[in-house]
């Protein structure tokens, strides 16, 4: 894989579209990440806490690290000091733990709420009803060391483009609906994280502001 070329390609793809590239570097060594960095990429996504914490100190300090994978409450403490955005918050319990640990290090940590939009069964992500319930519960406003800045979702892993599109549309509709609601000051709908290597073009058309691309930049895992 020509990482430099791939980064250049994606930066051009996204130009003028109001969408940023999260280069998903999971399983790839720091040297490969440095190649992407040298091509101008500054936002990287990892899905495992241990791997993220091992790589972060080995790479330039101006990298914006995003956690995109499932986060267990007992690992929150390790990422909160430096993480720029957590894409994968899927419970109130997790939000409360991020809030608690962020307060200890005097940070306000930006988070996205992960929504389950795919047809596939998964235990991760809020469904629409749970999401609305949480937002309307009034329980978030007290969490003053977190900031909810949007939603994240993963479409069904499928060749069926219309299915993928309808799932992204569903997430975008939810995003717009929440935007119109009366929200506490620590919720602001501005980021919509959707789209990966195989479906980013559809995600862009449906209003993504953050695409998470791994394979098409770094090659297979
Ligand atoms: C691995 C991963 C990606 C990137 O997937 P590719 O198909 O390699 O682009 C995006 N989002 C999440 C949550 C991931 O775990």
Short description:
By secondary structure, the protein is an alpha/beta fold. It has helices spanning 3-14, 30-38, 49-55, 76-79, 92-104, 128-136, 161-179, 200-205, 215-218; strands spanning 20-24, 43-46, 64-67, 85-89, 109-115, 146-153, 187-193, 210-213. The longest helix has 19 residues, at 161-179.
Layout of secondary structure:
Blueprint: H1 3-14, E1 20-24, H2 30-38, E2 43-46, H3 49-55, E3 64-67, H4 76-79, E4 85-89, H5 92-104, E5 109-115, H6 128-136, E6 146-153, H7 161-179, E7 187-193, H8 200-205, E8 210-213, H9 215-218
Parallel strand pairs: 1-2, 1-8, 2-3, 3-4, 4-5, 5-6, 6-7
This protein binds pyridoxal-5'-phosphate.
Give structural notes.
With 221 residues, the chain is α/β, with parallel strands linked by helices. It has a single domain, classed as Alanine racemase (TIM Barrel, Alpha-Beta Barrel). It is 38% helix and 20% strand. It contains 9 helices and 8 strands. It has helices at residues 3-14, 30-38, 49-55, 76-79, 92-104, 128-136, 161-179, 200-205, 215-218, and strands at 20-24, 43-46, 64-67, 85-89, 109-115, 146-153, 187-193, 210-213. It has an 8-stranded parallel beta sheet with strand order 7-6-5-4-3-2-1-8. The longest helix has 19 residues, at 161-179. The chain starts with a helix and ends with a helix. 43% of the residues are buried. Bound molecules: pyridoxal-5'-phosphate.
């Amino acid at each position: 894989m020509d990482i430099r070329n791939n980064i250049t390609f994606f930066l051009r793809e996204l130009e003028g579209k109001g969408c940023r590239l999260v280069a998903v570097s999971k399983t790839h060594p720091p040297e490969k990440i440095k190649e992407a960095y040298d091509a101008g990429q500054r936002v990287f996504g990892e899905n495992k806490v241990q791997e993220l914490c091992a790589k972060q100190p080995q790479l330039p300090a101006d990298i914006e690290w995003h956690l995109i994978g499932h986060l267990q409450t007992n690992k929150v403490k390790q990422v909160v000091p430096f993480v720029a955005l957590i894409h994968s918050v899927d419970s109130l319990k997790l939000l409360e733990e991020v809030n608690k640990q962020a307060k200890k290090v005097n940070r306000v940590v930006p988070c996205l709420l992960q929504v389950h939009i795919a047809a596939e069964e998964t235990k991760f992500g809020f469904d629409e009803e749970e999401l609305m319930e949480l937002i309307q519960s009034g329980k978030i406003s007290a969490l003053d060391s977190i900031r909810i800045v949007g939603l994240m979702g993963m479409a069904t892993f499928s060749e069926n483009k219309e299915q993928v599109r309808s799932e992204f549309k569903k997430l975008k509709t939810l995003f717009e609906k929440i935007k119109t609601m009366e929200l506490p000051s620590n919720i602001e709908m501005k980021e919509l994280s959707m789209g990966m290597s195989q479906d980013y073009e559809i995600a862009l058309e449906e209003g993504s502001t953050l695409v998470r691309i791994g394979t098409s930049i770094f090659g297979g895992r």
